[in-house]
Amino acid sequence: MCMADRARLLYGRDPLLRSLMPQLTGLAYGERARVRWEPRPDPPVVLITGQHGMGRTAVLDALASRYAGRLPFAYIRAVPPDQRPTAAGRDGAPSTAANLVQLLQELVCGLAPGLPSRYPLRRPSARHPFRVLLPGLVAVSTWEAGAVAERDETCLRIARMLIACGLSSEEPGDLARALAEAVDLPPEQGGDEVDLGAEAGRHERENGSKQKDSGNREDAHRRQLTQRLAEKLEEFCPVSPAQIWYGKQHGEVAAASADSPAPLVRLGLRLHQGGDPGHASARTLVAALLHDIAAAYGPLQRANRERWPLILLDDAHHPSGKRFIDLLLGERAKPDRQPDDHLIVAATHLGGVPDDAPDAVRCELPLLAEALSETAPRRGRSPSAGLLVVPLTPLGPGEILSLLDRADTTLHHYLASAVYAVTDGHPAASEMFCDAVLAAVRGGQDVVPESLLRLRGPDGRPVTTAILERLVPEPRQRHRLVQLCLARDRTAAEALAGHLGLRGPEQLQANAAEDYLETHQWQRYPTSDGPLVAHPLLQRLLMAEARRIMSDKGGELWQDVHDFLVQHHRDPGNGGVEHAQWHSMAAGRTQTVAGVLEELFELGKGQRGGAGEWLTLLAYCATAPVPPCDDGEDARTGTALREQAGPPGNPGPYDEAGSRDEALLSINSLLHALWCLSEAHTEPDRDLRAAVREEFGCLSRLHPTWRTELRHVARTWPAAAEKKRPFTVPPATADKPGTSQSFRGPA
Questions:
Q1: CB within 8 A of 50, min separation 6: which ones?
Q2: Residue 56 contacts residue 348 (beta carbons within 8 Å)
């Protein structure tokens, strides 16, 4: 699969792809042509943000498919430190890097073949572009004594850099083996018996005497290994320019003019030491990268307007990517820096604006065309002022309709709106739902909005399962969230975990689930009195998956879970009487809930307050998930329209001797109508909206003190249901104790 095949058709990303990036690169996105372009002395680092599935990687894939081969180019994905790095794939897949050194090495491998040569007539060893960075990366690429696997991987990365810079034509594996044989030290040698050169002698004199502990033995090993690597590198290219440059960076003027590789040795030792010295060495390596790139563009290249390099960095929230971005921004923010590099960096970041970037410029997608209109967009000299944050916005209903237009037949008129209501425009979820719709249509099914959550994808698996695996890839975390998503607060989640026998290394299952959601940017500040999963899309998917999994054996597990949670919330110590009613609805005991609402309705007669609390409870109960149906039939609409007042053979407490209590009948009808209308994926049926209006009108005539509030919601709630907006409590009752002006429960 080539890079062009990897890039999917993207919707709603044109301001980024066709406006911002051509302004930065000087190359058109949609065609192989140049655009009017002036090199920017201080180009911003573009940070593309969004949650899982928002299409961050898809944007970089699209950019890679259009710009690779047209300018110096590198595409890298940062990975966690415990993962092994990989080279770039033949299909255009990015290389990966687990630490800063590996990331810089991959940059050399990607950028070197495309960078212009300032001295094209010189021999290859003198005209390769990374005359400073390459020796520095070789100097810090050491390994522990006897670590054969680490040695082989390190030598392979060095070999790939030498080949990319045009310094060798051998195969990477052959060159790596030759390097390892030439520079490796025997494990028993330990480095102590070897003449370590002037730098080692100076180091020993400063410390008074030679240290015998393991730390100094490791330092001695790394010093000698670095010297051997530098000597071997001399066979491919001159090392003295890098020695001088790094010596000046360290303030070692005398050492910089000497022939010994002391500056390179010092660079490697400081990096492996970590802490402040390690940070200084890492900063020096990034400065070397910018120095070499700027040096590659001489007066001739600048006069010819040669295009500057483009770096695509995926998942820059991982430590290696974050460290590179921070160091790059720090170098560009130096007051004495000459703005002579025009390196273009586009990176992706999970979540929103980084917490440590207070001065970053945040620009929405529609405004990107004007983002670079100013000559100097930087606001101040803080490092984060050089960051342009572009949050990826959700898809709109029109773009989802375009996804569904691939069908060969006419689809239900509300299907695009239903997909949008379920996904909130989340790109990955929207695309997978649309693919499931198209697969079902090709299979001869008649797809309606009500069946959306029950569809199967092209691979035959339930679409909710496939989406959850994409958004929550860890199986153990996904299983835990599916089991606990039905709980309405953290205390209930912990009780449910104990009831279901969930086990794991964590003592508190709910806390572990919350930590996972926070770490992966699904939510930031969980509340103890709110649902465990606060993200609307994730909550809907988890609810649907729980309903599907627990539907076996007539929904016994579903019923058991909700019965347990009803009893949990009835305990005065756990509070949340409204949660008990919500779980009763989910368990299918709607008549019980209607009876409670009718009792509160009667108790409110003669009282001025309480309408807001009653309406809030009514709306909250209507958001409960629908219990699994054995026969697949949904009788809620019939009950809402008074076509049937209750299940056959069980007329309920309001059906005695052919006479029914009018208030209870209206409340029962109203509860079922709102239950249907509260589902995100259902079409707001006109008859159901009319039933809400009529039942509220009926109740307003039966209640002497709530008449104003009930007549108000008789007008506003049907309109809110039509627009899929939250049901709003009248302002007259919003400020009373125990009421809230707006209620938006989980869909």
A1: 56, 348, 350, 351, 391, 392
A2: yes
Q: 74: which strand partners? A: 311
User: Residue 530 has which token pair?
Assistant: 């709110």
Whole-prediction pTM: 0.85
The band of 154, judged by pLDDT with boundaries at 50, 70 and 90, is: very high
Q: Return the number of other C-beta atoms located less than 10 Å from residue 483's C-beta.
A: 24
Whether 316 contacts 351, CB under 8 Å: no
Q: What is the mean pLDDT of residues 296-322?
A: 89
Strands 95-97 and 73-78: parallel
Residues 485-541 pLDDT 10s:
999 988 899 999 999 988 766 667 888 888 898 888 888 766 667 788 989 999 999
> Max alpha carbon distance in the chain (Å)?
109
Residue found under tokens 């593309």: 48
Contact between 514 and 489 under an 8 Å Cβ cutoff? The reply is no
pLDDT in tens, 680-704: 999 999 999 999 999 999 999 988 8
Measured between alpha carbons, how far is 242 from 263 in angstroms, rounded to an integer? 9
The two tokens of residue 54 are: 């928002």
425 backbone dihedrals φ, ψ, rounded to 5°: 80, 10
Instruction: Tell which residue, 222, 223, 266, has the closest CA to residue 243.
Output: 266
How many of the other CB atoms lie within 10 Å of CB of 423? 28
pLDDT tens for 438-466 read: 999 999 999 999 999 999 999 999 999 99
From CA 99, how far away is CA 82, in angstroms rounded? 10
The gap between the terminal CA atoms of the chain, to the nearest Å, is 40
Query: Alpha-carbon Rg of the chain, whole angstroms?
Result: 33
| Other beta carbons within 10 Å of 407 | 16
- Nearest-10 Cα torsion for 664, 667, 669, 675: -140
List all residues 6 or more positions away from 690 whose beta carbon is below 8 Å from its beta carbon: 718
Residue 258 has pLDDT above 60, yes or no: no
Per the listing, tokens 């003669």 go with: 606
Among 263-272, 290-299, 711-720, the range with the most confident prediction by mean pLDDT is 711-720
Question: Quick one: tokens of 610?
Answer: 């309480």
Report CA-CA distances (Å) from 413 to 230, 410, 417, 449: 69, 8, 9, 9
Question: How distant is the alpha carbon of residue 311 from its chain centre?
Answer: 20
Q: What gap in Å lies between CA 334 and CA 661, rounded to an integer?
A: 78
Supply the DSSP symbol for 644.
Answer: -
Task: Check pLDDT > 60 for residue 7.
Answer: no
The residue written with tokens 């939510």 in the block is 523
pLDDT at 736 over 90: no
pLDDT at 272 over 70: yes
CB 138 within 8 A of CB 171: no
pLDDT > 90: what percent of the chain?
Answer: 54
Count of CB atoms within 10 A of residue 234's CB?
14
Is the pLDDT confidence value at 392 over 90?
A: yes
3-state secondary structure (DSSP) of residue 312: strand
Question: E strand or H helix at 95, and its extent?
Answer: strand 95-97
Q: Which of 389, 385, 356, 359 is nearest to 371 (CA)?
A: 389
Which structure tokens are listed for 546? 């729980």
Distance CA 162, CA 134 (A): 8
Is 379 in a helix, a strand, or coil?
coil
* Residue 252, pLDDT above cutoff 60: no
Closest CA to 224 of 165, 281, 268: 268
Amino acid letter, residue 606:
G
Distance CA 644, CA 652 (A): 12
> Which residue matches tokens 């970089």?
60
Task: Tally Cβ neighbours within 10 Å of residue 179.
Answer: 23
Instruction: State the pLDDT at residue 126.
Output: 62
> How far, in Å, CA of 684 to CA of 686, rounded?
6
Average pLDDT value for the chain: 84
